[in-house]
Structures
1.
Amino acid sequence: MIEVDALTKEFSRPDVRPGRFAGTRSLFTRARKVTRAVDGISFRIDAGELIGFLGPNGAGKSTTIKMLTGILVPTSGTVTVAGQVPWRDRRQNARTIGAVFGQRTQLWYDLPLRDSFGIIRDLYGMDAATYRTRLGEFTELLGLDEFIDTPVRSLSLGQRMRGDLVAAMLYAPPILYLDEPTVGLDVVAKGKIREFVAEINTRRGTTVVLTTHDMDDVERLCRRVIIIDHGVLLYEGDLESLKARYVTTRDIVVHATEFDLTSVASPFAEVLTAGPAKATLRFAPATTSTPKVVHDLTSRYPITDLSVLEPDLEDVIRQLYTERRTG
Amino acid sequence: MAESVLRQEVRAGRILLRAAWRAAMGYRANFLMTIMGGVALQGTQLLFLGVLLAKFQVIDGWRFNDLAFLFALRLAAHAMYVVPFGAMIRIDQAVQQGDMDRYLIRPAGAYLQVITSYAPLMALGDLLLGCTALAIFAPQSSVDWSPVKVAFLVAAVLGGGLVEAGLQTFLAAFAFKLTSTMSMRILADDTISRFSGYPLTMFGRWGFLSLTFLFPMAFIAYLPATVLLGRTDQLPIPTWLAAASPAGGLLVFTLALMFFNRMIKHYNSPGS
């Protein structure tokens, strides 16, 4: 469905050294400073996949997505999406893809949400019946009823994002790109959006490429992830093996109200911090199962509350990156 | 294939324009004020024009009534630029703020989406002024009107609009590389509105030739006016070229549009 080979994107701007008359010199300098945002990455995504595209800020995620969507033209390398070169076959590509960019709306700002949908119906030449059915389904799935007649400029972020999702999926493109669709949203809105994405992926077989910093998004939705940093591919594979490989320890936090935890100890875990009411211990899930540690602690101490901390994505990426640098 | 793309573009243009006008009318007070403001502004222009031209009497052998006609022709041509293409003024913004992202992933031309991105309300004032000026000054000119000449006049007005649109499109295309083109475009607009309504041979032979072939402002009003007034003997170029001036607009615009589409590959979407 999506094939990326040795994809590279460089941005260049005038190279101005700071100092006197820097502004004036910037007008005349011929020196250019080239930054390579994406540096020769290759991967493929099959039809029907729901893939997480991850990496820290400035890793080159958005640049890559923008090349996949045809917004940016690669400096070198190739992209083909459903057999087309996105930036060359823009018109055809537009019908193949839907895109939601969390930071920026695709809707008509001054018109009611419903009008934006109508414009999309006309632009993509949808027939009235299909449009009605699909809009009805989506409205129900995402709960658009309350605000579909509100001008987009008056919508909350969560409402707008739901509107954007519908706009991207109305004409049923086989591929959907989501660039941070849950950033800044509350729990309910996030939940609705995840539900919708899962639904269109499983029921309609839409291929989804999801960029996010939200580990929850990834864990709930993605089977496979691609991780990049500094424009280079760091990992491509399923989430479970990623964790098994990079997260070798897990932390457990215990609380007690009628017992002093300062002297807490366990044969299965190492104590990281221990105070009178709260202690944190670390264990290796590969050698010791979580229930075993939990059982050991709860049977020996009067513990009132307990939680196992899941590794977060940023940590995983950091480890991945550090490992790569140190060889 | 080419025809079907054209048909798609016309259809998309209609859809997007309707949306732009509906959006503009959502701000009712602003809509009415802007239109009234546009008309008032252009009305004072018309008065000023009368005063100015009456003062001069003769420029480069042209008498008042013909000068007024020439100027009216340029105003009408200008309206044919600002009404359909006026939204191009926001090209820098579209590039800087990333609206272009959206235009590049919809099934319509990026250029079409730029010029239909909003309804240029002020332009309605220009249209009113252009039509009024032409209605007043064309009959008073020394043109010996016939159906053929009226048809030529209409073609000239449309062609003149396309020349201006072409020049502005050419400059707007640099937005993809330079990000900011506002001052260049204002300079061009200023030059056109200041000089294109006068007999350009007043700048001498080389001045005239550069305004014909380099910055082809002469095609906007001056060349068609010389044809209508039978003054082509005054020109240092062949008469057939002046007579073909309405087609010049189509040529300039087509080249500019091709250039614009080529420049899109330099677009660096913000925040990537």
Note: The domain at 47-244 of chain A is CATH 3.40.50.300 (Rossmann fold).
2.
Amino acid sequence: MEPIIAPAHYSFFGIPLVLLSIAIPLVGIGLWVYIMAKRVAPLVRARNDERMDNIPQRIYMVIKIWLLQWRQPRYMMAGVLHIVIFFGFLSLALRSSLLVIIGVVPDFALPGLADDQIGGIIYNTIKDYAATFVFFACVIAAIRRGIFRPERYEVPERFGKNHNAEAVFVLMIISTLMLSESMFDASAIAAASVAHGESHFVAPGTLAWFFNNIFVGTAETAPAKLQTIHIAAYYVHDFTFFFFLCFLPLGKHFHVITSLFNVFFMRIRKGNIKPPVYGLTDEEIENLDSIGVKKLEDFTWKHILDFYTCADCGRCSDNCPAATVGRPLSPRFITIRGRDAIFKNYPLSGDILKSPEVIGGVFEADEIWSCTTCGACEEECPLGIEYIDKMVDMRRGMVDNGEVPQTLQKPLQQLSKKGNAWGKAPKKRDAWIKDFAEEGEIKVLDGETTADTLFFVDSISSYDDRMLEITKATVRILKKAGIDFGILGQNEKDSGNEVLRFGEELLYRELRNHNIEMIKQSGAKRIVTADPHAYNALKNDYPDLGIPVEHISEVVARCIKTGALRLNPVEDASKVYTYHDPCYLGRHNAVYEAPREAITAIPNLRLSEMLRSRDRSFCCSGGGLMLFYEPEEEERMGVLRVKMAAKAGANVMVTACPFCMVNMEDAIKVANMEDKMVAIDFVELIERHLV
Amino acid sequence: MEILVCVKNVPDTGEEEIELDGNDLDYDELTYVVNEWDNYAVEEAIQIADKVGGNVTVITVGNEDADEVLRREMAMGAGNAIHLEDEAFEKSDAKGVATILKAAVDKGKYDLILTGAQADAGYGAVGGMLAAMLDYPYASLVNKIEVGSGKLTVGREIEGGNTEMNEIELPCVLSIQTGINEPRYVGIKGIKQVSGVDIPKFAASDLGLDESSVGEEGAIVKRQDYFIPEAGEGAEMLEGSDDEIIAKLIEILKANGGL
Amino acid sequence: MAQFFAYVQHADGVIEDTAAELAAAAKAMGADSVTAIVTGSGVDAAASAAGEFFNEVYKIDNADLAYPNAEVVRKAVAAVVPAGSVVLMSHGTFAMDMGPGLSIKTNAAYIADVTGIDGVDGTTLKVVRTELGGNISTHVNADIANGAVITLRPGAVEPAAGGVGGAVADKSGEAGDLSAKRKFIEVVTPEAGGVDITKAEVLVSIGRGIEEEDNIELAMELKEAIGSKAEVSCSRPIVDAKWLEPARQVGTSGKTVKPNVYLALGISGSFQHLGGIKGGIIIAVNKNPNAPIFQAADYGIEADILEFIPALTEKINDL
């Protein structure tokens, strides 16, 4: 390709441009290292996090979520565009690096990848198509961002201006890289082919191919112009490349660098909550001066890495029930504002600033209490960013400072004094069993009376008249299935699922330790519960329980398979049922199929799925202590949910959680849909159809 | 400012129907909590001390169970606590409690003494009595406090949602109404961390009190029993014609201060 | 027999209705003759109005008493009542302010918020009152040998008949030193729109039975008929529907209220709602006889509130 002078040999007004080829990377990399060092500083000062367990699983997550972009197509249009750009970038990474070297050593090529070798031709073809696809993906994305403006990218006024400018700017940078890279190549190939009649293969339809076709004409008429294009394209690319590299850590495109790590270190287990500090005993936790997140450095390094990694795609908030009903919380802006706070406190030049109070200085208390911990955001995030642990850590900080909403204080006090949030007498916890006197005694497992299975009832299902129906249906099912079971009775206290998640760590530990002791004393070999919150706490939050925990739906599904339970045809075949996945059964514990299998085992029952089901289920507005929280909201989650059920053509909502039942029954009334919709619990439905 | 807050542990009867054991409370069934009004008073004291400097001391007259309440309020932020405990103090009437507290106040030096506006027995008397015994000015049902020099500006909650503003000289006694602030949450961690603190205890002899002036012996107002006026399951259904029902309802409204 | 006094509150020359109850209460305690005490600045009208119910009226007229500052009034009252007297007051924010201190200064027994009078046996006064947030009643005996200060819950006794025609005696000269360490500044009325249902004595509380937003007006009219001590509250669905502001919501996620009377109109009575009611009697009106509210209520009426409320409002307005 002699007819055109490579940048390494070109001089501009007598100055050899090779100097530029050396200077740009040196300055670029130097600057980038400097910026990255500044960005790493908060990670170093942050709290410890334990993320080196389960390496094979982590590698699997990297392959699935990072490399294969598993979660991207959940939003089809944006997802496909991202996949194109992502793979384009991966393919072009090598080329861009080589280009930097070519600026100094013009004929440099990796072994087997020279332009005239088969490997080189294949790679060039791939990268030409990649560049082309990336370019067009950018154009479409820019049009989407700039003209169609999908709603989820909008920024509510309270969080500042919209971020479209940054997004479009980056798309322009990427387009510039693609165009300049293609022009650089095309100009050389066109010049060579005109001068020597060489025919280089250029992948048809690519940008390079397009420019090559144009440049062939230019080479004939104005070779000097082509030389200028060649040199200009190179340095535009070189400069843009390093500019982009240094620009990445300044905003949402930091994810280009951090995503691999963030996905590797992402949450592997589900349903559990991180301890306030890893590796401490109960007593050591009690003696901590401060618990939870109060200043920025109280976040763990992974949580700060989360802040860095957010691509501002808005999927979390789009799925967040709190954001949907107009509560102050929008998870996307938790991360974005967290990132901005870190950036501000760790400036690129100057000293590290003293951290503001996280609550009041960065976030507002109402936002943090608004979260129902439903997990929709985490399920959706394509980058493995987490929220629940952060919420809990911030709540821990507020609890430690005494900043707890008044409506939550009494229930917490009652949980401490009486083991339930309603302040009901502990000795009445098992008062309901007297109703079973005629149907046969219910065992209370106290170590002397024993049974194979412990039915863990939990508070609401022990005291609330409506929820006692669920408890009683569960008992009848267990009896029918011939399961030898008993309850803890007055020895049971609240499972503490929400106590933990509302940040009252030590109260939770008291409840947990008490229950663990009582469960061990009971001698039961397995636990079954009809309350997904209890199920989650026992299964994921109680360490060393040592016995399996099942939700009643799993037991029912199995008993139907074995024939231990048989079901009559549906009572009213004209009804259309839908199943609402409780967050703590579905998303946090992946029990999606068992309840569906059991429900559909009722002959002639028509089940219609809501659009948002399984891992995209929409929270009813939360359970446990959430019932006592008075959020600022425009609409109730339950009402939206009931409307979703109606939209699915259903007139019976089946749920499998007492708190969902509270919220759904209220919502049906609020939505004025009593004649169109009824809510029924899974166990009630099954019990009614038992043969 | 040296602030003394008088607190009391009271049966937590808010959520549950009260059960009687004969004509007395079923004490086995009761859990005790800090009197709600007192909790607001402690919060207010802490906020004042935070703002203008000073110390907050919580004080109670009660048996050993009352220790829990003192610790809770210490976990909230009160720096000191005093426990007035003596068998001779048991079954004191409001005047008796005020007498005991006065003896303790005389041993210290306080600029401001706060009580809750009322407690479980509903007399709302101890603060006003203590003030009269000390010859301090007093304001009840206080829902707003602004600290001036040597005096306070206080708002009293009066009928109709109105607030009566007063200027009151220090030292003084105020009884605090709920809603004056938002009391902070006291977590288990805070309570555990003050569990080992030594709380000074004083008995009648330590206070130089004549035992016959306090306790059951000194009481001139004595509760004889507890009873539940209307028994029966559920509501008493009003029957009859519409006019009759409404007439009955109006009688009920009148009898209960509703009209 | 002790001498009986009743401290009579008044405004704009009109005495409070509770004065007649104080007269009746004194009679129930065996008083032959009851003396009213009227304090203030320019109180001739109020003093002569008190004569309607009392055998004698002590008038204490002094510029320092223009506003009933408890500390000042206490001095005046303590100066005019002889040792061993029984002083009755209507239980309210003024009585709570003055009563305890007065009992100390007169060395008398103090019995607050009396809801019933069983009589006097020798020097033992026997009354009924409530404790524990009004959830439970007690019999109380007080030794009134050295006198007593008693505050009476409004409405606890039937008011006495008028027409007594007691004469006014001017005791202004006996009031003595009225200097005080507490000075009244002003009464601040809340800004319009700020509703505080926790302070209302009667709550007209509506639930889903109200059916439509326009029907909220029915509850407002009933509230107006009952008067200034009433306020409209509601259950959560009403707030959710944005028919009323959140400040009016009663329940575990709303306000906790302690009215004398809670009128639950068309409220089914979820336990979240009932958790917000901490005192007083509950009167439930619901067309569903099985509504859980009837389990919690003291009185129940099976009726459609859309018909019942206007009928009740009309009857109250006719009173």
Note: Chain A has 28 helices and eleven strands.
